[in-house]
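This follows on from our talk about sequence and fold. I would like you to pick a protein and set down its sequence and fold. Go ahead and set the record down below:
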Amino acid sequence: MGKRKQVITRLRIIAFVACLILLRSYIGLAQDIPLVETPVEPLVEVPVDGVFFADILVRGRPIFQVGSLAELNATQRAQIINRRIASVIARSQPLETVTVQTSPQRSIATLQVNNRVLMTVTQQDAEDFGTSVEELAQQWANELNQAFDQPPLAVDVVQRVNITMRELIRDIIDNLPSIIGSLIVVALTWAIARGVRQIAYAWAQRTEGDRSTEILIARLGYGGVWVIGSVVALGVLGLDFTALLGTLGLTTVAIGFSLRDILSNYISGVILLAARPFRLGDQVVIKEFEGTITQIQLRATTIQTYDGRMVYVPNQEVFQASITNNTASPVRRSSVIVGIDYAADINTAKQIIRDAVLTIEGVEVTQPLEILIRELAPSTVNLEIRFWVNSRRMAFLEATSQVAQVIKESLMNAGIELPTDIYTLEFRNSPPTSRQVQQQAKVVENNGQGE
């Protein structure tokens, strides 16, 4: 169990960090961190924005990348080329084939379509990609021609996944210091939260003396530390808490409606742990379930029924239901009803019953023993014997069974009859025949044996 909890905790930390990274990318608060890279040629200048290459896009899909020039960085150059490509595609006239016009004297080549220059391929581009100007220009022209034609769906999907993954990797690299800092904060939060939970649990054991309250205090301390640690980790990532709180405020209502049942169970669990209508080990009746409380969690309460089944009742239903706690008091009252003959002396029967019941070990002698005339039945005088026993179910049933047995044996030993119900058949229209008399006697005899 310990190793399983450690694995689950590590998985939660990893998931938490992944969510922080995605949230950081979504809000767009990441700051560009220059990439440290050793240039191949000492004459190549490092762009001021830290971007060495930028994507050339056709209909939102990256085709290839261009580098920076002496007067333009890669981003500015790509923006100019992309604007030209978009203007050409936006026109109603059909697109012609992209052609290459070379200028050996200037060591450049231009890519043209529909008599418009899309871009210029320079010697710097050829050196960046390790080829000649003519070969690079022809390669880019072929890629543009393929992109201008509507690509298959599979190619489009692959290209979109490719750009998404590249952007994600770039964001992770750019935010690497913030990610490492947040991981350190998460690790410290986890260690501090465990320590606070142990300290809170030990303090609750000395002051409260109730396991349910001890669990509540330990969990509240653990959760409080994680809330503070999460806020600090988000701060390390550079998130603006004003914008974050505003976003959370807008989504609180939607989250409340979608998770109202889960939140209601957790709130009900906190109230149950604080109010303590029952504790661990208590034997209770909740709705149609009766058994022993084995676990009280923030979401559900676990009951082990007397036939060995485990029932998980949501705390919201427990909070709203009528709860019968059979073991809230150490003792509770039980009763047995016995019928004696009308001819027997009632006071004598009561004394015999009293002496017999008090000999049972499970009966509480400090509590009053009551013997009442419950009913004058057709054949018997029914006496109700009320006595107090241990409230635990097994002790309660065992003591009640022993009391019933000792009452029956004591009365019979004293000569007091415990008659069964007697039925009399009377025939008024004609005198009964001998056969009817025999049948009547047989019925009476059978009734006596059956009872």
